[in-house]
Every structure is written in structure tokens, then in C-alpha cells.
Amino acid sequence: MTGELLLEVRCEEIPARMLEAAIKELTQRTFEDLMGRGVGPREVETGFTPRRLVLVLKGLPARQDDQVVTEIGPPKSAAYGPDGQPTPAAVGFARKCGVEVSELRVKDFSLAETPLGSAATGQGKQAKAKMTGERVYAERHVPGKPTAEILAEVLPPILLAIGWAKTMKWGSGVGPWVRPVHGIVALFDGEVVPIELFGVTARRTTVGHPTLSPQPFDVADSADYRQKLAARGIEVRFDARCRTLADEMAARAAAHDGTLVDDPGLLAKLGAICEIPGVMEGAFDGRLLELPREVLGTSLRDHQSAFTVEKDGAMLPLFLTVMDRPDDPIGRVRAGNEWVVAARLADARFFWDEDRKVALAARFEDLTHLTFQEKLGSYQDKAIRLATLAPAICAALGWHQEESAAAEAARLLKADLTTNMVKEFTSLQGVMGGIYAREQGHAEPVWQAIYDQYLPASVDDRLPRGHVGIACGLADRLDTLVGMFGLGLVPTGTKDPFGLRRAAQGVLRILLEAQLPLPLEPLVRQAASLYGERLKRNADQVLADLRPFLADRLRYLLGRQELTYDEIDAAVGNTGDEAERTVSDVAARARALHEVRDEQAFLAVVLAAKRIANITKGQPDHALAAAALAEPAERALHEAHARLAAEIDAAVARRDYAAALRSIASLADPLERFFTDVMVMVDDPAVRSNRLALLQSIGRTLSRVARLTEMVVEKADYR
Amino acid sequence: MKSFQELILSLSQFWAGQGCVLQQPYDLEVGAGTMHPDTFLRVLGPEPWRVAYVQPSRRPADGRYGDNPFRLGKHYQFQVILKPSPADVQALYVKSLEAMGLDLRVHDLRFEEDNWEAPTLGAWGVGWQVMLDGMEITQFTYFQQAGGLDLQPISAEITYGLERITMFLGLSRSIYDIEWVPGGPTYGQVRHQEEYEQSKYYFELADVSFLQAQLDGWEREAKKCLEQKLVLPAYEGALKCSHLFNVLDARGAVSVTERVALMKRVRDLAVGCAQEYVASRERLGFPLLPASERREPDRAEGHGGAAA
Question: What integer pLDDT is reported at residue B306 of this predicted model?
């Protein structure tokens, strides 16, 4: 194929976590830049290994088309005098553009799109902002450049500008880039594109695997490149490597009648740390299977980047990982990996045996030495607070049977922080405590609550099992939020060292997904009072900061359920008693708004609500004298309103907010008639006051479910 | 299979062949080869430098009374500094593995991201842990900053864990079983008593108030030396403080709040030494620079000038 660019940048091992983003950025920027210059490719292929970034563009034109570039000059008024003669400004502009003054023309750019030629020279954006009204312009004929020349211009700055998560310098101070660069292949239709990066110039030569096939070799084009790498066992396509690894590992697991324990994150890591996707299979001592599988799995995953295999729900004494080579000729790779795994698992066994010598209940005492937060005291102080707060949550939800189990679990919730296992594998906190509690004979709701306390941590996580788990999960996070907010440690910007956003999100997700009728404000007050004198702020101050913080997280969570911001804001702003408000109720209101928002009557009533809000803004409360309403339209409105009141009340009471909104929407017609026929701000103060009173009363009804004035209505939607 | 000392000999031989100063261990307690002044101070400033040495490294809290087959309170690092890092530093490292007797055609060698940071030295670098058949055998770091100063040129630091590598090559089940000398004595015969007694001392006997007073005293000495622009004695004071901090920590005598404050005291000394070291080398005219780039030494300071 003609019009092909093959680009390979070779460097020392790039961190696995950065590779995918880097190749995406390189590809997108190159594509956009070339498109902008009129030399876009028809096909794009990418690849990477720890040591290579590879970009192949196909179907590039041989050269740019010739262009007419429009240069925009000064305003007409500045370019020509009253006599129509060109001013020095016009003369200077013409000279700059390389045209005669007589060739300048005039056009009103406020009506026109920014000319394409100007955009292509990089002045487009500025031009668009400033160029308005009649201005002079010149057209320059610019011959198109050969694509090879454009590539040589475009590629180095794009490569240099890749936004690596962490960069370094090397040698005499060369860089910054992600790692030292060793070689570049840049070929356009077989010819070297003369680019240079950190003193390394492009050639047609690359190398194979550093220890298995280090000899340099030349490549002619992308097909030749791929074929020669394949002959050395190297696969540059990340997806293909992951697929090969997954298939091969599944086959190895099947050979033992087992199945691979799925872990997409780990697979992606393995795919990114090799260029030859070889599978390493090893075994460990079957007696270690006495250890909890959570421990074995975590040790193998965290220390050895290894997959585990299970059969009939039980783990097999096997592990599978990657080796950056196709085979293991004398079994040394396997022997080495098994040696390391044996040492790691021996550590884990030691921790397991040691940890079980001390009961969790005894570890509660050691928590005095473990600081939760300097000013908020130790983890024991926290556990004592939670032993009150978690049962209080149970009580508030009517789960009286579970109050004592919640107190028991709460006291032990953090005890595993003193275990060797959690010190070694911090990701096992909670889980380990749960396992030890189970071993030590604590009841199922208790150990499960400890096990599940950090759930849900990520998007796909389940909720804690059971009432006790939910109460403990809520109590722990509320205690942390209230404590930190009570010290004024409110997260700002991207800084959130205590993970408060995640804590808030955890609280909200539990409340939403378990649909708990639990108002938060009384709990926040109780959590604050449990801190005694430790907090710098009182409960009201804490709530003042916490409310918008929680509302923000709620917006984010509900936004993920395809509710829009205006629906959420309207629901958050409902006029109910704040102390009684629950998160699941807010969500129900938002969902109701989402359901009815496109109905014509509802749109009309939203507009009416906005109108009422405008008219009554800043007004004191007016008293309604219904008998004094004289106009038919105002009487009709009042009567419709009175008729609907009970219906709306009933729907709100049974939390059927869609029905309530539809009842409210049936006021649309009388409202429209009222606004057509009746003038509110009349001179007669009594009549005016009475009409304002009517509108205030209706305004309150309209916001029974949600603050409708928050809803965004496109005029076009309202026909 | 190489014994412990053969490993040391082959690495020494190899790196001496690359023009390294074959240095000896620093004669004070340090936690890592990085803290040897021939690394920590020499990576500062413009002068080129190549050095290789073994550094016994004390980590009191890692001691296990000689009971744990994988953990030691003192282990031996083989440390290499190449400044500036040559373009082929990775290839040189691979050759050093071959010099150890490894046939890399039958092993799996990978470089996995592992960035190094030593807050008490105001130092950080970018690099990898080098994995051989799934085992970490080396820390490979491009130093970016030391003593809070940006570095230029950049040094490559290669740190081999000698016990681990010897153990791994022989697939030994215990550190104490590896051969120090071919045919014996073993590592255990050479060092086990020391591991036991030092653990006992660090964990059970060390006198906390005495150590705290020592730390305060060495901090004063270091500051005094810094004021007199005696950077090497000042740095030794900083090393003393760092080690005393580690002992107090192993003894369980450092609370969370104290830890932060103590680390800051050590860091301040290290940063002070780093800055003063660059100034002192500048006064000497950066004597390790090639003649064409060297500066005139500032003789008014009374140092030995080019003799340094």
C-alpha cells in the first residue's frame, strides 16, 4: 500500500500503567494534526510493548493540496481613509501578506465562518474571537507540501508533548520524557522520515527482544516490520497479547480441570509488561490451601502478578502469570517463580498463624496505639464511637433485632489493623478482620459486617451483606466525614487525602441502593456529639459544609443513572423538612421528574412556576381572601387548586411523585387562562395582595415534589 | 552456583572494568548503599563519577533474631553509581548479570516500574525493580533529586541485593544456608550470632533515653559542622541521626507524631549537607571535571584545592 507511515519509538521500559493512554494520545494528536493539514490517513493501526510505541498510518496522500489562505487584516475603517485611499496600516498588511495593496478586499467577517485557510495556519481561534465587522483581507496562494515533509514537522513535537504521568531526565540532563529513547523507525513509503528525538535520529533499523534477539535488523514497511517481529515472537498489538495470554491461561487451567479466576485489571497489566506473551505456570504446596483464598489470591496477585485457578469453588495450588519469552527451556523460569511464591506464601502462613494467636477482642485494646487522626484520637476511640452509632442506625431503621450485633461488630471493625496480614496486604483490611472473626466464632452477621465494611468501594462493588453490615458501613463513613469536617478538613479541588469523597459516595450508594428511609441529618448530629470536645466546629457548622458536599456526590451518582442535573437540583431543593429528608426520597423525586418532564402540561406548569417565582419574588406573605376573588379566571384557578390539593397530598404521602407531578400539571390550563385574563400587579392594593396570595399558595403547591423552577425548559420543547 | 563472595568478586571485577572507583563500605551504620557519601553527595553537582562498593545496610526493624529465612536486620547491597548515566547503562547492567554467570537465554528478565523515594534524604528517582524469573534482584534508579536539589547530570544507581540473588540462584530455602565461601563457611556460620544479638539489642535492650540524647547530640554536632562548612563530618552526624532514628523506631519508641518531626530533623540535616557539599565542591573548582571545564579553586577558603 502506498501512503504508509511506519513509526516505532523504542525506549527503556515504559511503566505499564502509562502505555495505553500514551499511545491513544499519540494517535489522536497525530491524526488530528494531519487532518488539519489536509493529509489525513484512511487507516490507523497502533501497538505498544514496554519498549516500543508503534503507529502505522495508511492511505496518506503523497502531498498536501495547494491552498488559498485568507489573511484577515485591519478593520475597513482603519485600512482606508475617508478619501478611500489605503492607510499605512493597509499598506503594511499587504506587504506582510506579500500582495499588492490593490489586491486587498473587504468583507464583513462577523457574518462569516472563520476562513479555512486561516484556521489551518493556526490563527483561526484568535481570529474568530476578535474579527468582527468589515475588514480587509488578502488571499495568498500556498503550494501544498509533500506529506513526508509534513510528517517530519509534525511528529517530533507530538512525541515530545505526550502527557506522561511521570517523566524523568537522564545522562547529561536530557529529557524530560518517560524513559530514555534508544531508537526510532520512521518510514514513509519506505523512505526514512528525518526526525530526531533527544539526539536519536530516525532510521530503518530496529531490534528484537533485548536478551533473545538483540541483533539489529532493517525493515521496509509495516508488513515487513510485523513479519520480522513475529519471527522473533514479538507481538506489538496489546489486545492480541492479552488475548493470547487469556486463551493460553484458560487452556492451562482447563488442563487441570479448573477455571481461571477472572481479573481483567491483572490481565491488562500482564499484557502491558511483555512483548512476547508467554504464559508461566507454577505450583505451590497444597498444604497452603488451608489459608483463606482471599489471602492466597491477594498475595499471588499483589506480589507475583499471578492469576489463580479454581475448581468447584475451591482454589487449586496453581498460579499463572506472564513471562516475556515464548518458552522455559530448562525449567528455570518456573523454578524461580515457584521459589518466590513459596517464600511469599510462607510469609503469609506465618502471618496467618501469628495473627490467630491474638483474638480480635483483645486487639481492641491495641487500637489505642493506632492513630485514626491526630486530633480525632485513636482507632479505639473510633471503635467506641461506632459501637454507639451503628446500633443507633439500626434503631432509626427499625432493625431492633440487630442492634446488639451492630455494637459487637462496630467494636471489632478496625481490630484487624493491628494484624500482620493487614500490615502486609493493606487491601485486605476489613476482609481479614471478617475472616478472623469467623474463625473466632463470631456470629455470621458480625463477621460479615466486618468483612464487608469497605463495600462498595468501586462502581461494580456490591453493598455490605445484611443489616449489621449496612449499619457498620454507614456508621464508619459518617464518623469519618463528621470528624474531618468537624476539624474543617473539607476536600478542595483534587485534594482529598482522607478519601472523603469516596466515603460520602459510599454512604449515598448504600442509602440509594438499599432504599433506606434514613434521614442523614439526625445521624450527623449524633456522630458530632459522639466526638465530644474533639471537634472545632459544632454540628450546625458541620452540616453547613456537609450538605453541599453530599449534594455534589449525589448529583454525580444520580447523573450516572441518566438523571440530568436540573432534575437532581430540583429534587434536592424540594421544600420538605431538611432534617427528615432522605437520599432515596430525593432520588425518587428526581426519577419522577425524569419520567414526566416531556409531557406538555408539565412543561407548561414549569414555565408557570418560573413566572410565579418572578412575580412573587421579594414579596412578603400575603393572606388569601378566597371570597374576594372576582375574575372568573382567578376563581377557576383557585377552585382547581383547592380541588387538587387532597389528590396531591395523597400522592406525595404514598411517595408516588410522578402521580403528584401529573396532578400538579393539571393546573396548567387554569394557570394559562389566569395569566392571559388576569393582571396581578394592579393599582388596587387589596386586589393585588389577594392575587399575590393566590399565586404564593399555588407556588407552594407546585414545589411540593421538587423545586420546579430549577428545571431547564427549551422553548422549542414547549409547543 | 555462585557463593556469596564469588558474587561480590564478579560484580566488583565487572564494574571495576567499567571504570568505577572500587570503593569500600562506609564505616558508619547506614540503612542503604545510597546513604554512603560516595553516592548521596557525589551525585550532586556537575562532576562525573563512577563508583562500585558493597554496603552492609542496617535496618534494625527488619531483624528477626535470626529466625526468619528471608529477613535480616543487616544485609549487604552491591551499589553502583554511573554519573552521568551512559546511554547503554541498561545493556551494561544486563552484561553484569552475565558476568555473575547468568545465561539470560534461559531466564525471564523484566523491568517493572518502581520509583524510589527517600523523604529523609530529600531524594527521589525514577526506575524499575528488575525481576528475574519473578524475583526482584535489583533496584535500578535514575536519580532526579537529592537533598532537595535537582540533579544534572543524572546518575544511574544500580543496587543489587546480594543475599537475595545468591539465595535465588541456588534456590536456597534460607538465607543462612547460602555459601559465603564455596564449600563453606555458610552465611549463617558467618552472621547468625550477629543477627540474633543485634535483634535482641535493638528490640529489647536499647536504652531509649540514651539514644534520644545521642540523636540530639549528633544533630548539634552536625549543625555545628555545617556552620563551619565542614560538610563531610556534618553528613556523618546526619547518618548517625538517621541510624539512631531507626533504632528508636525498632524499639517502638517513636510515636506517629514524633516520627514526622524526627524525619524532618534528619531531612533538614541531609538537605543542608547536600547544599553545602555543592558549594564546597564549587570552591574546589569541581576538581573531577575534565580540565577544560574545571574552574579555578577558591584558595581563600584554605582547603587543599586540587588535592581534594
Answer: 43
- Judged by DSSP in three states, A632 sits in helix
Among B110, B152, B257, beta carbon nearest to A273:
B110
Question: C-alpha angle A689/A690/A696, rounded to 5°?
Answer: 85
Alpha helices in chain B (DSSP H): 4-16, 37-40, 89-99, 162-169, 187-200, 208-227, 231-250, 256-283
Residues A536-565 have pLDDT tens digits of: 999 999 999 998 898 888 888 888 888 888
Say whether B90 and A12 touch across the interface (CB within 8 A).
Answer: yes
- Residue A142, exposed/middle/buried by CB under 10 A (0-12, 13-18, 19+)? middle
Asked if A336 and B85 come within 8 Å (Cβ–Cβ), the reply is no
Q: Which residues of A161-186 are buried (b: 16+ CB within 10 A; e: fewer)?
A: ebebeeebbbbeebbebbbbbbbbbb
What is the least distance, in Å, from the CA of B261 to any CA of chain A? 14
Q: What are phi and psi of A676, to 5 degrees?
A: -75, -45
Q: How far apart are CA A275 and CA A52, in angstroms?
A: 9
Mean pLDDT of A626-650: 89
Which H or E run includes A155? Answer: helix A147-160
- Whether B216 contacts chain A with CB within 8 A: no
pLDDT category of residue A330 using cuts at 50, 70 and 90: very high
Q: N- to C-terminal Cα distance for chain A? A: 56
pLDDT in tens, A449-461: 999 999 998 877 8
pLDDT confidence band for A1 (50 / 70 / 90): low
Nearest to A46 by CA among A68, A30, A64: A30
- Confidence at residue A107, expressed as pLDDT on a 0 to 100 scale: 83
- Residue whose grid cell is 459544609: A545
How far is A164 from chain B, CA to nearest CA, in Å?
13
The answer to whether B242 and B273 have CB atoms below 8 angstroms apart is no
Q: What is the pTM of this model?
A: 0.79
| Chain centroid offset of residue B262 CA | 21
Contacts of A173 in chain B (CB under 8 A): 84, 152-154
List the single residue in B128, B142, B257 with the smallest CB-CB distance to A374.
B257
Given the C-alpha cell 445521624, which residue does it identify? A523
Quote the ipTM score.
Answer: 0.93
| Contact at CB, B134 and A336, closer than 8 angstroms | yes
Counting as low any pLDDT under 50, the low residues of chain B are 304-308
- List all residues 6 or more positions away from A454 whose beta carbon is below 8 Å from its beta carbon: A429, A430, A473, A506
A16-36 vs A147-160: helix crossing angle, rounded to 10: 140
Q: At a CB cut-off of 8 Å and minimum separation 6, what does A212 contact?
A: A232, A233, A276, A325, B105
- Phi, psi (rounded to 5 degrees) for B273: -65, -45
Confidence label for A123 from pLDDT (cuts 50, 70 and 90)? very low
In terms of DSSP bridges, do strands B156-161 and B135-146 run parallel, antiparallel, or are they unpaired? antiparallel
Q: Quick one: pLDDT band at residue A125, thresholds 50, 70, 90?
A: very low
How far apart are the C-alpha atoms of A454 and A462, rounded to whole Å? 10
Tell me the sheet residues that pair with A531.
Answer: none
A291, A424 contact by CB (below 8 A) = no
**C-alpha distances out from residue A43 to A53, A154, A193, A566, Å:** 17, 18, 19, 41
Backbone angles phi, psi at A684, to 5 degrees: -65, 115
pLDDT at A71: 87
For residues A40 and A293, the answer to whether their CB atoms sit within 8 Å is no
Q: Tell me the shortest Cα–Cα distance from B221 to chain A, in angstroms.
A: 32
Instruction: Report the DSSP pairing between strands B49-58 and B21-22.
Output: parallel
Q: Among partner residues A169, A273, A343, which is closest to B70 by beta-carbon distance? A: A343
Count of C-beta atoms within a 10 Å radius of residue A317? 17
Residues of B in contact with A167 (CB under 8 A): 126
CA–CA separation, A310 vs A249, rounded Å?
13
Phi, psi dihedral angles at A63 (to 5 degrees)? -155, 165
